[in-house]
Design brief:
With 388 residues, this protein is mainly α. Helices cover 57% and strands 3% of the residues. It has a domain of 179 residues: Citrate Synthase, domain 1 (Orthogonal Bundle), CATH 1.10.580.10. It contains 18 helices and three strands.
Length: 388
Amino acid sequence: MTALQDELVEVPRGLKGVVVTDTALGTVRGRQGFYHYRQYSAVELAERRSLEDVWHLQLEGRLPDAHERARFAAEVAAARHLPQDLWDALPLVAASGDPMTGLRTAVSWLGAARGMRPVYDLTPAERRADAVALAAPVPTILAALHRLAAGLDPVPPRDDLGHAANYLWMITGQQPEPAAARAVEQYLVLTVDHGFNASTFTARVIASTGADVAACVVGALGALSGPLHGGAPSRALDTLDAIGSADRIDPWVRAAVESGDRIMGFGHPIYRTEDPRSRMLKGVARGLATGRPEAERLVAFAEEVEHGVLSVLAELKPGRELHTNVEFYAGVVMELCGLPRAMFTPTFAVARVIGWSANVLEQALDSKIIRPSSRYVGPPPPQPVPSA
């Protein structure tokens, strides 16, 4: 072994349980079923505060007073509007048909259009301005891409609506029902941040190089697009469709588990108890469904499937501590709010870009680049290079 190899530290696969830095933004206590944004319970924030309030908390370190709330809401509303050259380019970007792919392209374009410079070269105030300027228009971009792909004209943002209500407005072109707007807002608050998940860690790795905010977010979007990360809400709802009826729950689940298939919406790398986001979203789904027979049937069936999956998992995978995660009821809530399934993961991105931005700002305060090592396991070097 070389001297450098002697210094290597063995860590678990996937860096599970490895602390890589300090953060003041919040964390997840998996065994307690609790997570928080700064000093506040994230679930309590979702119950009691707006998305803009939580956004302000993550950027500024405190919940806003009335004056700060109005000022921040105005800042966000102004930043939702896109440069004309990006509006003009969106029909071409939408041609891919995948909103997450289109969003990555549009965010990169937006960073260039705004002239975003490396965070390494910026003051904290300049970094913060870039963070808001990039996160605020994400719903505008996604809604426009969705409508263009469907052959519809984009709907411009409105300055008089909150971030969640405005998102629904731009997707549907209709004034959203208050209950739907609030349900989407609560989902967004619940998913703003969640420890050093794959996309957040990706954003921080890129930020550690001193790159611009747009580069950090584009990388995070790539991580979020994977089905093992943000791509699960629509797949969890697809599971309900595949099962179809209550009498098929047990045989379907057993067949899936015994064949080694992953059942989307269950299990989490951190939680060893019920995901608190799932618990709250189940309540949100029940509230949305009340008085709507078809919606009530969907929620009731989802609860039957949840019970059936958990029962089979407990029997066939004893000791694994597998529980319902956020994606399962997130899909139900978004379905009840009228969001198309193709927009489930993009809606996750609407929330998570706020958390990414806050993490980028925090990481930019540390000039140390994130540069881990690997262990080489190939043929022993050096070997002679064969002649051509």
